[in-house]
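pls ignore typos typing on phone
nicotinamide-adenine-dinucleotide + seq
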Amino acid sequence: MKNLDRRNFIKKSTFSAAVISTASALAGQGSSELIRPTDAQYMGDFAAPKLEKVRAAFIGVGARGGDHLKFSAALEGTEIVAISDLYEDNVLKWKGVAEEIGTGQRHKKIKTYHGDENKWKLMLDEVKPDVVFIATNWNNHAPMAIEAMKKGAHAFVEVPIAVTLEEMWEIVNTSEKTRKHCMMMENVNYSRDELMFLNMCRKGVVGELLHAEAAYIHELRWQMKEEERGTGSWRTNHYAKRNGNLYPTHGLGPVAQYMNLGRTEDTFSSIVSFSTPALGRKDYAAKNYAKDHKWNKHEYKGGDLNTSILKTQLGRTIMVQWDETSPRPYTRLNLVQGTKGALAGFPTRVALEGGVEGLTEDHHRWVQGDQLEVLYQKYDHPLYTRLNKAAKGSGHGGMDGIMVYRIIECLRNGWPLDQNLYEGCFWSAVAPLSERSVASGGAPQNFPDFTRGSWKNTKPLGIIQ
Ligand SMILES: NC(=O)c1ccc[n+]([C@@H]2O[C@H](COP(=O)([O-])OP(=O)(O)OC[C@H]3O[C@@H](n4cnc5c(N)ncnc54)[C@H](O)[C@@H]3O)[C@@H](O)[C@H]2O)c1
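k done
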C-alpha cells in the first residue's frame, strides 16, 4: 500500500471505527453483541423438551425463596431435590416443609447445602437438578443463573434478573448457547387485575395503546431493621450507593406485555430518568440508630423517589416510578391509556369512550368499586379463572401460585414459558440505564436490543387458557 493510500485507509478506518463505536454506544451495546454467535439459538419462543418429573433445587430460601419451594412441592410432577442457603436454619426449615407436603411419598431425598458462599456450586455438581430457583440477594442472581445453565439446569430467577447490562448480556449468551431457559419470575404479571387488563388490551377494549404508568411504591424503611441478615441487610446498601430506578419490574412487566414490547409489535427504545433528593433513609437511620451504626455511615446517594420515562420504538411512553422510602400507601399504578379509554390500578378503575354499558355514560367517570364485578365477569383472564383456586393461599393474593403453576406446567408439557429470557433482561435493564441517565442529568439512554433484532419475529404472549 502506498503511503498516501495507507494514510487514507487509516483515516477512513479510524473514522468508521468511531462511527461504529458511537452507533453501538447509542444502541446501548458493544459491536460484539450485535451478531449472535453461530452456535447460539434465539430463545424468544423457546420450548424445552418435556420433563415428566421436574427435579427442582433452590438457592436462597430467605424471605422469598421458601414460597416458591412450598408451592412447587405441592404440585404434581415435581421433586424437591436440594436446598442451598447460607444459613442452616433456613435450609432445615424449608426441607421440613417440603417433606411434610410430600407426606412420605415425595421429596424424600432432599440434599442440603449451607454455611459457605459457594456450596450451591457443589449442589449443582452433585444433584444435577432440572431446574434451579434462585432467590438470593441481587448481586448473586447473574452468577448463579449462568452457572446453573452451564451445569444443565433451567434457571428461574427472582427480580431483577441481574444488576448490570454486562451481566444481562452474559445471561443471554449463556441461555442461547446452552439452550436452557432463564426466566425472571415476575409474579405481578399473574395478578388478577394485570391479567384482566392484558385480556382487555388484547380484545381492543381501550383501542390502540399510547401510554402506561407503572411503579413500585412501597414504604419499606423497616427492612433496615434487618441489620445483619435478611433483605434489609443487603438491599439498604444498594439504595445507599446507587441512584436510579432500582426495582422497576413489578410495575413494568405487566404493561410491557400489554404493549407487546419485545414481541413483534413494538420494543424498548430509550429512557430518561430523574431522582429526587435522598432524604428519607438518612433521616430514618439518624432517628433509629446510634451515630456509629453502619446505617449512619452511608452517604445515601439514591434519591427517595425516581421517575423514569421510557420511549418505545412506536413512540409510546411509559412512566416508571420507584420509591421504597417515602410514607404513603402501596401502589404499582398499573395504568394504561389507549385511544378509546383507560385502565388503572390502585384502586382498580376503568373509563371508556361512550361509557361502560349499564355503568357509566361517558369517559369522564370511572367504573370502580362494586361496579367492577361486571367487568370481572366479562374480562377475567381464563388463566386466572382456571388457576385461582389451585393458587389459593400462595403469596401476594395468589399470583405467586399461578406463576409457579405455569412454570411447572410449561416445563412438563414442553411449552414456551409466559415470560422469555429477553423480557427479563429488558425489564431489569431499566435499573442500570436509569442510573446512567440520572448520573448524566437525565440524558436519554438507549436500550440494548437483547434479541439482536429477533423481537420482530417473536409471537406476542397469547391469552393462555
Ligand atoms: N417477586 C416478589 O414479589 C419478591 C418479593 C420479595 C423479594 N423478592 C426478591 O427475592 C430475592 C430474595 O429476597 P429476600 O427478601 O428473600 O432476601 P433474603 O435476604 O431474605 O433472602 C436471600 C437468601 O439468599 C441466601 N443467600 C445469599 N447468598 C447465598 C449463597 N452464596 N448461597 C446460598 N444462599 C445464599 C441468604 O442466606 C438468604 O437467606 C431478591 O431478588 C428480591 O428482590 C421478590
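The chain has two domains: 54-184, 189-457. The two ends are 67 Å apart (CA to CA). more later
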